[in-house]
Design brief:
The longest helix is centred in the first third of the chain and has 20 residues. The protein contains eleven helices and 26 strands. It is globular, with a radius of gyration of 22 Å. The two termini are about 30 Å apart. It is an alpha/beta fold and about 400 residues long. It has two domains: about 120 residues, 3-Layer(bba) Sandwich (FAD/NAD(P)-binding domain); about 200 residues, 3-Layer(bba) Sandwich (FAD/NAD(P)-binding domain).
Length: about 400
């Protein structure tokens, strides 16, 4: 949004506890060694280097005073005339926060590096393990959640085991790894048409992934997970369990609710007005995954295109207010469809009733994700890595480091 206020007569202060902009849709490729963190993240100062009316502050908002129009951060206070909040969402363990260290989610660079370390260490430990049962547990990977993130993550782990690592160990055969995709509902990718869910399941199964729908995680510990299938419990020994089953609004949404009394939905997102402002607070806007915006009877999905559209819209509202013009209202979401990749040359997608799958859908996925990367240098680097993975099935970011 800040970039769209470049020519407006405003001074913009952008506050973020990280010093980089992250393209979250490709985090799963960092988590599985396909891309390095620098391929999908760019320093914010660099992105906004030509925007002289924007100041970037590396800090964290802990409270806000809507009456005094003041943000309270860890380093001090920041007054504002107009406030735009876009803090996104966090992992949601559905009341089982004790599972957090046992089944990490994928929402940050730190998450991706931690997951990469877990996955790669599992193979290294299996190479040294003499006991067959223990080795099988090390080579079992359970991904809980059958949405886009879970499907893409399960497919990438299966490709890593089946192709990338197949000749790199002597005591184990990585192709014997067990990768499981666990979904509580009756199908994966529930946001897409049922026929596409079937095709996605078939693509995962061709990679060797066990797709378990109608299955719920009931307990997770360091040695595995207890699953409930059809009223019966099943114990799966697995040293690597990954979480992709739910999200909730970032803690900043709760702070905003306390300060304004605004309504929130079931996962804590702010229910905004048609112009994306907060009820009774026209000076406060909420955009991105943190906002609940209705579209055809359902909330707009938590995807990058929706957040980008909202950012452009709010920038225009602010500029028009300053110019004395009537701001546009309401926000109108243009649904650009949904895409999910399941591996090399396999993807499924939907756009305005039209359904796509296979190689054409995979090419569309590649092109769209390259376009949405914020810097040209990142697009070139990612394209080179993708060509490398496609031609040789190699993943060049498979480092196990102390911090990651």
């Amino acid at each position: 949004m800040a970039r769209h206020l470049r020519r407006a007569p405003v001074d913009v202060t952008l506050v973020d506890r990280r010093n980089f902009h992250l393209f979250q849709p490709l985090l799963y490729q960092t988590a599985t060694g396909g891309l390095s963190p620098g391929d999908i993240a760019t320093p914010i100062q660099h992105v906004l280097r030509k925007h002289r009316n924007v100041r970037v502050v590396m800090d964290e908002v802990v409270h806000l005073d809507a009456r005094a129009r003041t943000l309270v951060t860890r380093e001090g206070e920041l007054p504002y005339d107009t406030l735009v909040l876009a803090a996104g969402v966090a992992n949601h363990y559905l009341g089982r926060d004790d599972w957090t260290p046992l089944a990490p989610g994928l929402k940050s660079i730190e998450d991706a590096i931690s997951i990469r370390r877990r996955i790669l260490r599992a193979f290294e430990a299996a190479e040294m393990e003499a006991d067959a049962t223990q080795r099988a547990e090390l080579l079992t990977f359970v991904v809980i959640g059958g949405g886009a993130t879970g499907v893409e993550l399960a497919g990438a782990v299966a490709e890593l085991a089946r192709y990338t690592l197949r000749r790199e160990f002597r005591s184990i055969d990585p192709r014997s790894s067990r990768v499981m995709s666990v979904e509580a509902s009756d199908r994966i990718l529930g946001e897409l048409a049922p026929s596409l869910s079937v095709r996605a399941s078939q693509s995962l199964e061709r990679l060797g992934v066990e797709v378990m729908t109608g299955t719920t995680a009931r307990a997770i510990d360091a040695a595995g997970v207890d699953l409930e299938v059809g009223g019966h419990r099943e114990r799966v020994g697995a040293r690597t369990v990954l979480w992709a089953a739910g999200v909730r609004a970032a803690p900043l949404a709760h702070a905003l609710q306390e300060a304004t009394g605004c309504a929130v939905d079931g996962i804590g997102r702010i229910c905004v007005e048609p112009n994306l402002s907060v009820a009774s607070h026209p000076d406060i806007f909420v955009i991105g995954d943190m906002a609940h915006v209705a579209y055809r009877g359902k909330p707009i999905p938590c995807i990058a295109p929706a957040a980008i559209q909202q950012g452009k819209f709010v920038a225009r509202v602010i500029a028009d207010r300053l110019a004395g013009k009537t701001p546009p209202t309401p926000f109108r979401y243009f649904d650009k469809g949904s895409l999910a990749t399941i591996g090399r040359s396999a993807a499924v997608g939907e756009f305005r009733g039209m359904r796509f799958w296979g190689f054409p859908s995979w090419l569309a996925w590649l092109f769209i994700h390259l376009i949405y990367l914020i810097e040209f240098e990142n697009r070139i680097l990612v394209l080179i890595q993708w060509v490398n993975m496609y031609v040789g099935r190699r993943r060049g970011a498979r480092l196990i480091t102390e911090g990651g």
